[in-house]
UniProtKB/TrEMBL annotation:
UniProt keyword terms in alphabetical order: Cell membrane, Membrane, Transmembrane, Transmembrane helix
Membrane topology (UniProt): Multi-pass membrane protein
Pfam families attached to this UniProt entry: ArsP_1
Protein name: Permease
Cell compartment(s), UniProt: Cell membrane
Transmembrane domains' residue ranges: 9-29, 49-74, 121-145, 152-174, 219-242, 251-271, 277-295, 307-328
Organism: Lysinibacillus telephonicus
Lineage: Bacteria, Bacillati, Bacillota, Bacilli, Bacillales
Length: 331
């Protein structure tokens, strides 16, 4: 089992190093007579823009994850989480809605919370609402749509109800935490460090955050590269041809949200640019679906959770978001 994990780590490391080497080619060949295709330079630009958007939030996320690992015990978690499933999911969604994080930065936080004893369904509620309807996202949505509260309120209301429904379904389908790594290695950390001086515990927190950052960054880089590759070589216009009616245009906008892998703090400005192309329902689907699940986020989730769980979560998010945004058009 350990050898398989080592092979997986080695493969992911080699893969990421290969990506970085390929993307450094334009710098290495600068001033040479060999022509570099414009599409490759575009790929490089998109890749870097995705990383620059995501890394600050990942840094915040791993610092919070390190704090949880060193300072928060299982007893703290049990005291805060209601025993009732619905109340636990509701609380996690409310906390997520007030927590400014993007879909990348929230993954290490959720992993650490679940490893510390937070039920999977509560972790999913936090995972979905954090990037989707936090105050920064709602403010950016309000500004992107010309200081009009309608889209911001729709995003907040429909997104919250959809996240609640997804987390409740997860509570029925999965009983274990679905983490790839057992939580045994985390079990004693906070209790042991509780006896250490505060400065020592802060130092341990920073060390843990650094380890978490490098662990998550490999998968962020891989996801950003795949997203940039698809954005460069798959024509957006070809997708727009399929958006003849509301159902098709909703599917197209959800597909765009998944492939573009935009930061949730900035996606509203992209969504607003489609107002003259697609109906409000389709744009709402774009704004809700992308922060819940996108390409780079999926690769990060696969590094943390079992593949079966990630696949089921992907299907649930896709189906429930599609249904809920179309139902909202009748209200």
């Amino acid at each position: 089992m350990q050898s398989r994990q080592k092979q997986s780590v080695n493969f992911s490391t080699v893969f990421v190093l290969g990506i970085l080497l390929v993307l450094l080619i334009p710098l290495l060949l600068r001033g040479k007579s060999l022509a570099i295709p414009n599409s490759f330079q575009q790929l490089n630009t998109i890749f870097l823009s995705i990383l620059i958007e995501a890394i600050p939030f990942v840094l915040i996320g791993v610092l919070i994850a390190g704090f949880i690992q060193i300072f928060i015990t299982e007893e703290h978690i049990r005291a805060c989480i209601p025993k009732n499933k619905f109340l636990a999911v509701l609380m996690s969604c409310v906390v997520g809605a007030a927590f400014p994080a993007c879909e990348c930065g929230i993954v290490p936080i959720v992993r650490r919370l679940i490893g510390k004893g937070v039920p999977l369904y509560a972790g999913v509620g936090f995972l979905l609402t954090g990037p989707l309807i936090n105050p920064i996202v709602i403010l950016s949505t309000y500004m992107a749509f010309g200081n009009d509260m309608e889209m911001a309120l729709l995003r907040m209301g429909v997104g919250f109800v959809a996240a609640l429904a997804i987390a409740l379904v997860i509570s029925i389908l999965f009983k274990s935490n679905q983490l790839k790594k057992s939580k045994g290695s985390h079990h004693l950390d906070a209790r042991v460090n509780k006896k250490q001086p505060f400065i020592t515990r802060v130092n341990d927190m920073l060390k843990h955050s650094i380890d978490e950052f490098f662990d998550m960054s490999k998968y962020l880089i891989a996801g950003a590269f795949v997203a940039a590759f698809l954005q460069t070589y798959v024509s957006t216009q070809s997708l727009l041809l399929f958006g003849d009616n509301q159902v098709q245009s909703t599917i197209v906008m959800m597909a765009l949200a998944f492939v573009l892998s935009l930061c949730s703090e900035a996606d509203a400005f992209i969504g607003a640019s489609f107002r003259n192309v697609f109906p409000t329902t389709s744009i709402l689907a774009f704004l809700i679906y992308g922060p819940m699940i996108d390409l780079k986020n999926t690769i990060m989730l696969l590094s943390v959770f079992k593949a079966k769980f990630v696949f089921v979560l992907f299907l649930l998010i896709t189906i429930i978001v599609f249904i809920f945004v179309n139902l909202a058009s009748f209200i």
